[in-house]
Amino acid sequence: MPSKDQSNYTKLDKQVVRGKEIWETNNCMGCHTIMGEGGYYAPELTKVIDRRGEGYVKAVLTSPIPWAPNGRKMVAYNMNEKDAQAMIAYLKWVGNIDLNGFDRVVSPLAKANQ
Fold first, then answer.
1. Going by DSSP bridges, is the β-strand pair 37-38/33-34 parallel, antiparallel, or unpaired?
2. What gap in Å lies between CA 10 and CA 50, rounded to an integer?
3. For 14-35, what is each residue's pLDDT tens digit?
4. pLDDT of residue 108
5. Can you tell me the distance from the alpha carbon of 78 to that of 70, in angstroms, rounded to the nearest whole number?
6. Interval 51-69: pLDDT, tens
7. Largest CB tally within 10 Å, which of 54, 59, 92, 99?
8. Calpha distance 39→44 (Å, rounded)
9. Which residues have a Cβ under 8 Å from the Cβ of 63 and sit 6 or more positions away?
10. Which ranges of 2-113 does DSSP label H, i.e. alpha helix?
11. CA 106 to CA 89: how far, in whole Å?
């Protein structure tokens, strides 16, 4: 491991890994970005927990109806508590990665919606 490692890999746990699996299984990157990678249809999520809070993110993930802010519609995942908490753990983990001075909001789309 590099001596100046800026990832927070030591904070990985089973819940974070489960959240990543959910992220990949549902192709969240088809619409969202993390650290600039992914689609630009929906908000950038690198620091979404800091920006929106866990309660908002959980409400979106567990909503039984499609979430439709600003005219864009997100799939209704209707996640159970366990999966929603795993996604939040994953997004918190991503949010704690040291961005080495890069802006905490990476995509221009996310900046416009702050």
1. antiparallel
2. 20
3. 999 999 999 999 999 999 999 8
4. 59
5. 20
6. 999 999 999 999 999 988 7
7. 92
8. 9
9. 76, 77, 78
10. 14-25, 48-52, 54-62, 81-95, 108-112
11. 20
